[in-house]
């Protein structure tokens, strides 16, 4: 994409406790100009024009009316999780913004964990594990 300006995507941060994982940030950087919430708040006037997307990771950043009003070129909010209960879809739609999510991203992992928990419960594995360690 040499010579072409990448669209801006707002993220909370990279790394840390609540930021986007560094591997995901590296992937996003191939297609977007990453703008952290700190950068946005420090220079709202300039950054608000660049941001066309928000990447929501672990329900952050919080999407509210004030944020949406400050982003005139926002087109889409990409949610990295399955559910969108933390987003006010009606309010977001009133700004003409679309919302995406990943509904099947963890379906296999969730099913695997569910089966493991059912088998562990049926076979009393946790109790057996505790008994083995306590008798040592």
Give a topology summary.
Layout (H helix, E strand, L loop, with lengths): L7 E4 L10 H8 L3 E4 H6 L1 H7 E6 L8 H5 L6 E4 L9 H6 L3 E3 L6 H16 L2 H10 L2
Parallel strand pairs: 1-2, 1-3, 3-4, 4-5
Describe this structure in words.
This protein is of the alpha/beta class and 136 residues long. The chain has one domain (8-123): Rossmann fold (3-Layer(aba) Sandwich), CATH 3.40.50.720. The protein contains seven helices and five strands; from the N terminus they run E-H-E-H-H-E-H-E-H-E-H-H. It has helices at 22-29, 37-42, 44-50, 65-69, 89-94, 107-122, 125-134; strands at 8-11, 33-36, 51-56, 76-79, 98-100. Strands 2-1-3-4-5 form a five-stranded parallel beta sheet.
Question: Nutshell version of this structure?
Answer:
This protein has 136 residues and is of the alpha/beta class. It has helices at 22-29, 37-42, 44-50, 65-69, 89-94, 107-122, 125-134; strands at residues 8-11, 33-36, 51-56, 76-79, 98-100.
Query: What is the CATH class designation?
Result: Alpha Beta
How many domains is the backbone divided into? 1
Tell me the name of the CATH homologous superfamily. NAD(P)-binding Rossmann-like Domain
Average pLDDT:
90
The side-by-side strand order for the widest beta sheet comes to 2-1-3-4-5
Number of strands: 5
Outline type: elongated
Instruction: State Rg.
Output: 21 Å
User: If helices are DSSP runs of H or I spanning 4 or more residues, what is the number of helices?
Assistant: 7
Distance between the termini: 62 Å
Tell me what the CATH architecture is: 3-Layer(aba) Sandwich
Query: Level of helix content?
Result: 40-55%
Main sheet makeup: 5 strands, parallel
Say what the CATH topology is: Rossmann fold
Low-confidence stretches: none
**SSE string, helices as H and strands as E:** EHEHHEHEHEHH
Residue share in β-strands: 15-25%
From the helix content, strand content and strand pairing, which structural class follows? Answer: alpha/beta
